[in-house]
Amino acid sequence: MMNQAAVWSKVDQYIAERLIEQDVILDNVLTNNQEAGLPVIDVSQAQGKFLNLLVRLHGSKRILEIGTLGGYSTIWLARALPSNGQLVTLELDPHHAQIAAANLALAQVQDKVEIRVGEALQQLALMRDEGVEAFDFIFIDADKPNNPAYLKWALHFSHPGTVIVGDNVVRGGEVLDENNPDPRVIGVRQFYDLLAEESRITATAIQTVGSKGYDGFMIGLVTR
Predict the structure, then answer these.
(1) DSSP code string of the chain
(2) Computed from CA positions of residues 28, 31, 33, 39, in that sequence, does the dihedral angle turn out positive or negative?
(3) At what angle are helices 94-106 and 24-35 packed, to 10 degrees?
(4) Which one of 13, 39, 130, 220 has the fewest beta carbons within 10 angstroms of its own beta carbon?
(5) Looking at beta carbons, which pairs linking 184-188 to residues 24 or more positions away fall under 8 Å?
């Protein structure tokens, strides 16, 4: 009998085989990331398509992604944009950004995407100073200790109707432990606290299992 994690992975594979068209480009993107030594922390196929569908359902034209890695989720998001859409993605590591740029070109979405390299909080402050306009959809998937700060910036770059999605908000259930010293867990718990207190956004979180283990997504709608 398979253990629970193996079942989760098998179900993810089952979902992908039946509901997600095989995509050689996205397969090559994951291979490129692995060969370049990037951490294997991309969203799964099912999660990537979930994000793609959210953007399409919402009709978003401008996306902000905090955390690029190798651009796998970026491609899923960019493909959901209309021809005049734009995605700004923030990546700390220049090597990651270089791999992401090559992957975006491989997927032929580079004209829709701007990669900004550097510490995300600094880039967000620069974007404010540059007068960058609000976004319709914001995906937060970077270092978890800074999640509360990323949420504050996401709200700054939002308008009524903006959708904000945060990844890795369950952390295998560790989010329940108020005494957990892990900065990632502390950051996610503070993220929840801010969401609970913030009157400009209504939100929920969904627990997920799959090839990426046990975790979850937060989804929120900016109301004012």
Answers:
(1) ---HHHHHHHHHHHHHHHHS---HHHHHHHHHHHHTT--S-PPPHHHHHHHHHHHHHHT-SEEEEE--TTSHHHHHHHHTS-TT-EEEEEES-HHHHHHHHHHHHHTT-GGGEEEEES-HHHHHHHHHHTTPPP-SEEEE-S-GGGHHHHHHHHHHT--TT-EEEEE--SGGGGGG-TT---HHHHHHHHHHHHHHH-TTEEEEEEEEEETTEEEEEEEEEE--
(2) positive
(3) 160
(4) 130
(5) 184/143, 184/144, 184/145, 185/144, 186/145, 187/143, 187/144, 187/145, 187/146, 187/147, 187/148, 188/144, 188/147
Count Cβ atoms within 10 A of the Cβ of residue 189 and give its class: 0-12 exposed, 13-18 middle, 19 or more buried.
buried
Supply the pLDDT for residue 181.
97
At position 57, the amino acid (one-letter code) is: L
pLDDT on residue 1: 55
The pLDDT tens digits of the residues spanning 135-186 come to 999 999 999 999 999 999 999 999 999 999 999 999 999 999 999 999 999 9
Pairing of strands 86-91, 137-140: unpaired
Residue in 24, 20, 19, 21 with CA at minimum distance from that of residue 103: 24
Predicted confidence (pLDDT) at residue 2 exceeds the cutoff of 90: no
Please list, residue by residue across 98-118, b when 16 or more beta carbons sit within 10 angstroms of its beta carbon and e when fewer do: ebbbbbbebbebbebbebbbe
